[in-house]
Design a protein that fits this description.
This protein is mostly beta strands. Helices cover 13% and strands 41% of the residues. The chain contains three helices and 41 strands. The strands form ten sheets. Strands 7, 8, 11, 12, 13, 14, 32, 33, 34, 35, 36, 37, 38 and 39 form a 14-stranded mixed sheet that branches. It is rod-shaped, with a radius of gyration of 43 Å. The two termini are 20 Å apart.
Length: 505
């Protein structure tokens, strides 16, 4: 009689546990990345009243006679199914698609979470806002990936150092129909340029020195043959003025300007006398060193003070004594592959290292060409930039964090690491949406999204709870009816005991 009473009590107790799990699921229906639980039951012990017997001869055997003693909790499982993705627009919100988990750190202890509603703390570390645990990954320093797993840190205002220009690339077209420049043509002569406008072209670009200072440079092309062009890199050096004193030897007026910095040559534009007389560069003839002879038609005498305007251009570095070279094309308008396609030129700038630039004319249709269309030859790009500060960042599906800096450059800052487990349902819940390894989860296998791990990230989104309310309400009804039925067993057993107590009457 008492066996049924205790069986009913076990049913009451364990159906209450099922209601506890259902209540917890419903309470967390809006918890980020929550994984719902499920209770399964198993039968309890059975009391053997009579054992089984073998069939004796021509008679059948007899099954054992047993009475069950109630039921028990079989398992409380974590349903590790994917939750829906909700868009938030917040860059630091990350949703996982797959079975992986984020790795976070508290001191020397690692935890794991599916909840990707991360934020930046005062030190620029990416943290879980519920407890301040720091998100883990690999970090980049000056664009170089560092070994090991460390805290992900994204401090706004982080600086990227200036990179001096070292490479340039030419592109575009030089007009095959352009007339050849006449003999004696000088790209430095305004008169020659004006007389032969179709025989030359130019473009400009900015380059950067070791201090990150921007300098404008000009590239000039002029046609020297049917399929040949000359080019020169011409830095737009600032004009310098300096007073000089005229000397006279043998009736010839001369003056000497200060020596230029290394790797540069002087180009004098003009000189001005104290009375305002302008002496154009055409009336000045360069001499030994930094001396210039003044044309006799200019009325000067020894001791006159001139204000000389001059600029410092790169010293000769290319073919034919130019800071450039020769471009040779074949009959199809492509660069001759046998010629050198990269020439290095250099020029000095005040207060910084010499700017040394390798100019690549490319090859094929993507490089310089000579087709019978308008000239569009340009310095297409260069690899230098000034210093900058971190302004913004983005996170892609691989977990790569890319920083956007105020100088227009982008640099990788870090990559978020993910953890995979043989049995993620075996992880131990520790609260705050965090998990720890358990004896049956297996050890964490660290990797990156879509590289060692099949999961991927979505930035600006969060994974929602996987609780199915329709299923939970159905489970609630089943649990309630199961509880009621077991309570009926208890009350009925009690009534039977009451009848037994009254037998003695």
């Amino acid at each position: 009689m008492l066996r049924s009473l205790f069986a009913g009590v076990s049913g009451l107790r364990n159906h209450q546990v099922r209601m506890d799990v259902i209540g917890n699921n419903i309470a967390n229906v809006n918890t980020v990345a929550f994984k719902s639980g499920r209770v399964t039951f198993k039968e309890g012990f059975s009391q053997l009243l009579q054992g089984a017997s073998r069939p004796p001869g021509d008679q059948g055997g007899i099954n054992p006679i047993q009475v069950g003693l109630g039921m028990q909790i079989g398992s409380i499982d974590q349903l590790y199914t994917q939750g829906n993705i909700e868009t938030t627009g917040q860059t630091t919100d990350l949703a996982l698609q797959g079975d992986s988990l984020f790795v976070v750190r508290k001191g020397n202890q690692q935890y794991f979470t599916r909840s990707g509603n991360f934020q930046l703390d005062a030190d620029g570390r990416l943290v879980s806002p519920t407890n301040g645990f720091v998100v883990q990954g690999q970090v980049y320093t000056n664009g170089q990936l560092q070994e090991g797993i460390a805290d992900i840190r994204l401090p706004f205002g982080q600086k990227v150092t200036a990179q001096p220009t070292s490479d340039m690339r030419l592109g575009g077209n030089l007009n095959a129909s352009a007339p050849q420049a006449p003999a004696g043509f000088s790209i430095d002569s305004p008169a020659d340029r004006a007389a032969n406008p179709a025989s030359w072209t130019e473009s400009s670009i900015s380059v950067f020195d070791s201090q990150g200072t921007k300098h404008d440079v000009k590239i000039e092309f002029w046609k020297t043959g049917a399929n040949t062009w000359q080019w020169r890199l011409d830095p737009a050096s600032p004009t310098v003025t300096s007073p000089v004193t005229v000397t006279q030897t043998g009736g010839v007026n001369r003056f000497t300007v200060p020596a230029p910095p290394a790797n540069t040559t002087l180009t004098v534009a003009r000189a001005t006398t104290a009375s305002g007389l302008v002496i154009d560069a055409a009336l000045l003839t360069p001499g030994p060193g930094n001396s210039y002879t003044v044309d006799p038609s200019v009325n000067l005498s020894a001791g006159d003070v001139l204000t000389v305007e001059y600029s410092m251009l790169p010293s000769a570095g290319g073919t034919g004594g130019l800071n450039g070279g020769t471009l040779t094309f074949d009959a199809q308008g492509n660069l001759d592959p046998t010629q050198s396609d990269a020439i290095t030129v250099a020029f000095s700038v005040p207060g910084a290292d010499t700017v040394s630039v390798t100019v690549d004319s490319g090859s094929g249709a993507n490089g310089l060409t000579q087709y019978a269309t308008v000239s569009t030859a340009v310095l297409r790009d260069q690899n230098g930039y000034t210093a900058g500060q971190l302004q913004n960042f983005s996170i892609d599906r691989y977990g790569l964090i890319t920083g956007f800096f105020t100088n227009g450059t982008t640099n990788p800052l870090g990559r978020i690491v993910l953890a995979d487990f043989n049995n993620p349902s075996g992880l131990l819940r520790t609260g705050d949406n965090m998990y720890q390894e358990s004896a049956n989860s297996g050890s964490a296998v660290l990797g990156f999204a879509l590289e060692g791990s099949q999961s991927q990230l979505t930035s600006g989104a969060l994974e929602m709870s996987n609780v199915d309310l329709a299923q939970e309400f159905t489970n609630m009804i089943v649990a309630q009816r199961g509880f009621q039925a077991n309570s009926k067993v208890v009350t009925t057993s009690d009534e039977m005991l009451q009848e037994l107590m009254q037998v003695k009457r």
